[in-house]
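TL;DR need structure tokens for one chain.
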Amino acid sequence: MSDIRVLELLEETGALKSGHFVLSSGLHSDRYCQCAALFEHPAIAGEVAGIMAAKLREANVEVDIVLSPALGGILWGYELARALNVRSIFAERGADGGFTLRRGFVLRKGMRVLLAEDVVTTGKSVCELLPLVEKAGAEVSAFAAIADRSGGHFKPDAPFHSLVKLIFQTFAPDQVPDWLSSIPVTKPGSRPD
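>> reply
TL;DR here they are.
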């Protein structure tokens, strides 16, 4: 039932969008999930994080700290940490393009880390955090996402929890149907061209 509630909240806040989108992968779609729209509403974001926190507790996931990738995962990680009553930190891309901890953020040996990402499509960004956890001698307790867009393809070595599964039809750039081509295109993702 909680998945229905989360889907309602994504729709209510305008996080689920229709149009013509070029995804980070380069594929085209008529649907897009922009969780930033959900995070414009702190009470709703808190409700969604509370639903995930309950799910994690039910699964006996133990967490000392939440780590998320900048930029998209920061607000989700923060809200989730608040719901779990643990610390929240985020990693940023460094000059080499890889993720690094700044701002005095640290992971310590033995910490149980929850990796948080708002929407997982390939899982690339959130998995790029793994070397930071390993280098610190910490351990990944689980991955947590609001939406799983991977179609079941994201299978990390730690448990993966999501609140909704979204399946959007996608098209290669040279196979965009006429009905979609007639709609002005936008590229809403967080990755630059």
